Amino acid sequence: MTRRDALQLFTGAAMIAAVPARGAPGARMEAFRIPFDHRAAFDLRQRLKATRWADSIVDNWSQGTDFKFLRSFIAYWQDHYSWERRVEALNRLPHYRARIDRFGIHFLHFRSQQKDAAPLLLMNGWPSSFVEYLRLAPLLTTGNPAFHVVVPTHPGFGFSDRPSRPYQVEPADLYPALMQSIGYGRFLVAGTDIGAGVATRIALRRPDLVTGVHVAEALERPAKPGDPPPSEAENAYHRRDSIWDQDEGGYQAIQSSKPQTLGFALADSPTGLASWILEKFRGWSDCDGDPASVFPLEMLADNLTIYWMSNTIASSIRYYYDASRLRPHLRSSDYVEAPTAVAMWPKDIGIAPRELAERLYNVQRYTLFERGGHFPAWEQPELYASDLRAFAASLAS
Prior knowledge:
The chain is of the alpha/beta class and 397 residues long. It is built from 16 helices and 10 strands. It has one domain (3-396): 3-Layer(aba) Sandwich (Rossmann fold). It is 42% helix and 15% strand. It has a 10-stranded mixed β-sheet with strand order 1-2-3-4-6-5-7-8-9-10, with helices on both faces. Helix 14 (354-357) links the parallel strand 9 (336-344) and strand 10 (361-368). Helix 9 crosses helix 13 (313-325). Mean pLDDT is 93; it is low at 5-23.
């Protein structure tokens, strides 16, 4: 499966007591706190300490994760990072859990003080978590226009429930019900990577609820008779995509075909987990080859420790299997009617030209930024917030 195929498929608030949800019969939500387990924290340190290192015959990232960087990071994670202290800090965030159709969804809900703020459903991708949005979300709750920001955790990721059978739930169905549970009748949807795919599918499934779509990945629908031929920019995009599949797409091939094989290994070794994920933060970001220049070690450790403590790396990568083999494909007749903004970041995995995006989306705004990569909410939060705000303002005019 190519990256292009996968894109088609992936396709501070006050704490509240448990209350009946509005708009989603039977749904309930309640305040949530990240648990801290002393035994699990001790076990993590012991596993890191007992790492058996593979040999490395290159002194760089050309064959994958660089040995020197990984060894330095593991030393930090083992000796200087305190999950107990970070749990205390992260629990100051507005965490909630909701049960939608008997499935538990974790989410953050950042409410603006502005009464006319626009509801925004903001979704990350893999191998990220809500941690990626901790620089962006506070910016969005202020300014003009401002947003009420809801950041859900995908099924099988972090503190949401893990599916108990293949393709048990569809995020594009769960999240509109979640927004209605909170009390938002209509809302904007935005996302990167997997989140962009979910945003697209929500707009296709529930056009009555979506006021606008903001995506950092442009999905492709199958061609249909009468479509104009691909432009040179589209052909160039597909050529670059083929090269990327060969050079960088190995992770996607295994996660889409044999995720459980990999899942057992990553769930048993935190060093293995770090090697698998940190290489993506380096390769997909605008960091000039040094991930620590963009992502503080604490942020990277937070993200990894959420996967580790929740034991959700296997279930998170099974998302790729479900998406490639079980989720219905886009149809040639699909079209996102909602006004759409496409934000392209120069060091992201792929930069789709506007004419490609316009085949599926009602593109009203297309922006190619000068800097930023696959994790723009952390890499360039001010630029991301400004683009979301400008798009929302255009919808209101």
